[in-house]
Fold:
Amino acid sequence: MDYQNRQALVRRIASCKISGSIEYCNFEHSITIEDPSIDLLLQADVLYFNRLSELNSSKAYLNNKDTDRLLISRGLWSKDKASELARLRKDLNNLNSRYPTLKFKKAEQTAILVAIDVVKKRISELESITDQLWSATSEGTADRIKKRFIVANITSFSEKTNSTKNLLSVPSFLDKLIVSYYRDKGISQKDIRELARTDPWRTSWLLSKDTGTPLFSRITSDLTELQQQLVTWTRIYDFAYNSQSRPTEDIIDDDDKFDAWYKGECEKIDKENKNNYLSSGVNNGNGGNETYVMADKEGAKEVYDINSYESRRRIAMREKAIEKKGSINEEYLPDIQADLRMEAIKNGGKR
Structure:
């Protein structure tokens, strides 16, 4: 996007309004749609869950298992495709985790980004198959009822007549409004992210932080979903700009590269926090650097993952020695023996 397009989107998000026209029954209507308030969204949520409960009780609508069976019977879905989708989601997570570890291996980074793009496209293809019958499910029907309620309460006409007012109770007209508001005039997450890291929004954001001036006319608890998304992504990019390992501009401007970097940073911080927590544990009492932590079988794996490469190597050496001899005194463990030899060498002696 160029600067003017970004500025227009920022104004759209700040104003909470869309003005335009919509055609219905060969007539053009000038309309204004205002983003829903938190109170209206609360009412819509209550309506959704009440209707969903009624629809599920009636058993007249499909559920997820029903849609899978129908898709399989039509030859559009299979257990193999379901397994493929699960595997691809796992692969995508692994690729995103691997990318930050290849900081100076540009060829491998490029290869991983290509792989991420291929995997994402295939996931999208498979998900589009599973979503084909969603509108016929009880969840899809309840969601449509909810969105009809929302657009009926946030739309106003330039020409205020009884006929236009009555349109807001016509399901087919409301469905056109749903498409217009949620799809045609919606703002994608990709665009939200671009706004969050560029001007004019970033200048306004920084000025707001420096001066304490509100950015929006609504109070924080009543921000629209678009405003919340924009603030959330802006804070994420603030984290990147202020990070000691700040990513380069080409990473910040590329969503896939940035997601991989951000995931890696979050994992690194999480690991450091866990290490700090463990460092306050109980020492082995022998002046060593080991920390003992009480853990069950599941927790033990998490503790093991926190260990450094060297610590894991020592653990492997111990396990191998114990497996070979059955039992062994601590002082004869291979890593302890190696430490004692190094200490003897430092002191000019032998062991």
